[in-house]
Write a structure and sequence with these properties.
The structure is a single chain. This protein is of the alpha+beta class. The chain contains six helices and 18 strands. Strands 2, 4, 6, 7, 9 and 11 form a six-stranded antiparallel β-sheet that branches. Strands 1, 3, 5, 8 and 10 form a five-stranded antiparallel β-sheet that branches. Helix 1 runs parallel beside helix 6 and helix 4 packs across helix 5. The protein starts with 7 loop residues before the first strand and ends in a 6-residue tail after the last helix.
């Protein structure tokens, strides 16, 4: 194989013109990508580009998607170790290529060993500035927002990283339609008050103020996951909350026992199958608390609670929570938006929304957000 003698190696910290997407702990030596949709973006000339990548895991390996000029061209399982990965070669050296290396898989709370880091690049061209887009959007959610099942056959049932996608995902599609930069905070199975299996620790608000608060263990601590997030550095124009699906599912799941305390947690149903009033009220109170928290950190954002891709059993409770928060605070920049329900024709892997369901949601959600923030972008 003929080697390109023109390639030069650069640590990420040596390149001033890179753009980082997603919450980070602030380090580029190396850059740790925590969340779904987190990415390294660059504009670069030259014929060839490599990235030095490092992954570790015990259970769930990371995946990445590579986009060249906004088009997905490669999807890679990042096996354990540290090595060089070719992003492109043989391209027109004079042309500027926009490159995004995107983390396809959510932060894995169930695998404290899982990590994905970028150390350096090798290129034979020059780096050019990457501009900011007119808007910023933060998406908060569960498996739907993590893109679980958005890729893969409808027959797939294995819970593995292969079936996650940050690209075939309403978050990326909505942001693209609105010409917006975006971030994602999401975790499969988690909710506002409780996870699908009634575990009260499986809630997104609990770690929202940290860089990646749902990750535990000494390794993630060292990587900066538990550092306070710098909200002043990235203030969104809109925050989209797609939570409630797992809180609703908890009513139909067995109780969860905390082995440390012996206490069992359970969202209960009445004899007629309706939600127990006290437990439903607890969910609504948790939703109001989360709205307060979101406003504390995101002062100017429109907060949109978007829900409904896998049914709408919690929609009345979500509407009541939003109304209670607005009445309490006078904050009128909080609304509720019903998302289009998945159908058998739009289902993906693992009984989750597939590509067409994400496209449909992105079209409707982008239209709704455009009406709020006044984007001139077109679908």
């Amino acid at each position: 194989m003929e080697l390109n003698q023109q390639l030069q190696t650069y640590a990420l910290s040596e390149i001033e013109l890179l753009k980082i997407h997603g919450r980070t702990a602030g380090s580029l030596d190396p850059l740790t990508l925590f969340w779904t949709g987190s990415a390294l973006e660059m504009n670069v000339t030259g014929s060839e580009l490599w990235v030095e990548i490092e992954a570790d895991y015990e259970l769930y390996e990371p995946w990445i998607s590579i986009l060249v000029n906004s088009a997905p061209v490669s999807r890679v399982m990042v096996t354990a170790g540290r090595y060089w990965l070719c992003i492109f070669r043989g391209m027109n050296p004079a042309a500027v290529k926009n490159i995004r290396i995107v983390k396809d898989v959510q932060a894995m709370s169930a695998d404290p060993a899982c990590s994905l880091q970028l150390h350096a690049v090798k290129a034979d061209g020059e780096f050019k500035p990457v501009g900011d887009k007119p808007y910023k959007i933060e998406f908060i959610g569960d498996s739907i927002t993590s893109g679980e099942g958005a890729i893969g056959s409808v027959h797939e049932e294995d819970w593995i990283p292969m079936w996650f996608s940050a690209i075939h995902n309403y978050t990326a599609m909505t942001a693209e339609a609105l010409d917006a930069d975006y971030r994602v905070i999401s975790q499969s199975g988690w909710g506002v008050l409780t996870s699908w299996d009634n575990n009260p620790h499986g809630n997104i608000p609990g770690g929202y103020g940290k860089v990646c608060g749902l990750l535990t263990g000494a390794k993630n601590e060292a990587l900066g996951a538990q550092k306070d997030n710098d909200f002043t550095a990235w203030q969104p124009d809109a925050v989209v909350v797609n939570l409630g699906t797992n809180d609703g599912g908890a009513f139909y799941s067995p109780g969860w026992k905390d082995e440390a305390t012996g206490k069992t947690y359970k969202q209960r149903l009445n004899a007629d199958g309706s939600f127990h009033e006290q437990d439903l009220a607890a969910f609504e109170e948790a939703a109001v608390r989360f709205l307060r928290q979101l406003r504390q950190y995101n002062r100017k954002a429109h907060i949109i609670w978007a829900y409904g891709m896998l049914g709408i059993p919690m929609l009345p409770a979500i509407r009541r929570a939003a109304q209670a928060y607005t009445k309490e605070t006078g904050d009128r920049k909080v609304t509720v938006f019903q998302l289009p329900d998945m159908t058998p024709e739009t289902a993906g892997a693992r009984s989750h929304p597939g590509l067409e369901a994400h496209r449909q949601t992105a079209r409707e959600l982008a239209g709704y957000i455009r009406g709020i923030i006044g984007s001139g972008a077109s679908l």
